[in-house]
Design goal:
By secondary structure, the protein is an alpha+beta fold. It has a domain of 107 residues: Immunoglobulins (Immunoglobulin-like), CATH 2.60.40.10.
Amino acid sequence: MKRGREKDKRLLFVLSLAAVMVQCACGIKGPPRLPRALVPPPVADLEASGVGHDVRSVWSVPERGDAGFEGMEGFKVYGSNALDLEAPCPGCPIPFSERLDVRLTGPEPIEVDDGRVICHVKVTPGHRYAFKAVAYDESGGVSKDSNIVQVTVE
């Protein structure tokens, strides 16, 4: 009888030890973390001026070989017309919509002159507009918003 109890105690000990090991090995996993990614540098010097039925937007582009240029695919220009510039409430953001996708290797109507991108966005004369731009890369990374510029087209 004594032998049977020892056997039962050993079996209980082994099962208890196995249960503790399983609980320790199957711990709760933390939330997933995104891998570190480099995003393009933001456009810092966006300028805009009204020219006929267009708004001429100009900004600097990193030079080839710069760390900021590596993997950069293009820029998106967002705009908002005068009706949307009136914020619906104090402190509310201006509702921008995409107006132009400028690819560095594409046939879009852009010019690159002395390291600056020059593009034209069609607008309606007599309105006031606000514009901002973001850079994006081939992996989908997007820079922070540029400065916001406002222009009235006569």
